[in-house]
Design brief:
mainly alpha
């Protein structure tokens, strides 16, 4: 859709933002997503049924967010498979161990677990797709969907909108920020203008470099 400009009116970010804001290339994202999936498959065969967990200290959580989860936030302009661009130290403990444990604690059979996994994966992909389509079922069931999570991916919004399925914890912890808020919309507008200027400046630089080369190689 991005290549052919389809549904551009529903796209949250401009082509200029796609070119200038992300610190991870789409190839990097694909590579790590495949590694992540392979690791989870291997872990599924060899992980023991019984695991022990403990609640880490607040400082440990902050350190984990800075050095581990921050990799996911190299993507400021989200796209669907960017949902799976995560550090291995995040993917293996959470997706490979804790998620299966939760399914086991909930006593879901294989069919129920597969159904929940489909819902969870679909919601994650939709949250990162970068398009706010009308009548999106995820937006209807979970008000904090595409726009809500997109704000969390912005450099100025990373400390807000952590929730995935509901906004109750963000509201309770003071980290809720509506993407429709006037200040949020102002920041989005500035970001778009900044990206356009960066692309324009880059084009001008290439143009001037080409002209200089032509003069040097002239008769």
């Amino acid at each position: 859709m991005d290549t052919h400009g389809l549904f551009s009116k529903y796209k949250l970010h401009t082509p200029a933002e796609d070119l200038t804001k992300n610190r991870a290339s789409k190839w990097d994202v694909i590579k790590f997503a495949l590694i992540q999936q392979a690791a989870q498959c291997a872990l599924g065969y060899y992980t023991a049924d019984d695991q022990e967990t403990s609640i880490p200290h607040e400082q440990a959580i902050a350190s984990w967010a800075q050095h581990v989860h921050s990799m996911h936030h190299d993507i400021y302009v989200p796209f669907a498979y960017g949902a799976f661009y995560n550090h291995p130290l995040e993917t293996i403990p959470i997706d490979g161990i804790l998620f299966p444990m939760c399914l086991s604690i909930a006593r879901l059979d294989n069919r129920q677990a597969a159904f929940f996994g489909i819902i969870w994966t679909s919601k994650t992909v939709v949250d990162h797709c970068g398009y706010d389509f009308p009548y999106n079922p995820c937006n209807i069931v979970c008000p904090n969907s595409v726009l809500y999570h997109d704000l969390h991916h912005q450099s100025w919004g990373m400390k807000f909108n952590f929730s995935v399925y509901g906004s109750i914890w963000d509201r309770l912890m003071g980290t809720y920020w509506s993407p429709h808020d006037e200040k949020a919309q102002e920041k989005y507008s500035r970001s778009k203008v900044k990206a356009e200027l960066a692309v324009s400046k880059k084009k001008d630089s290439k143009s001037s470099t080409g002209e200089s080369s032509a003069v040097e190689l002239g008769p």
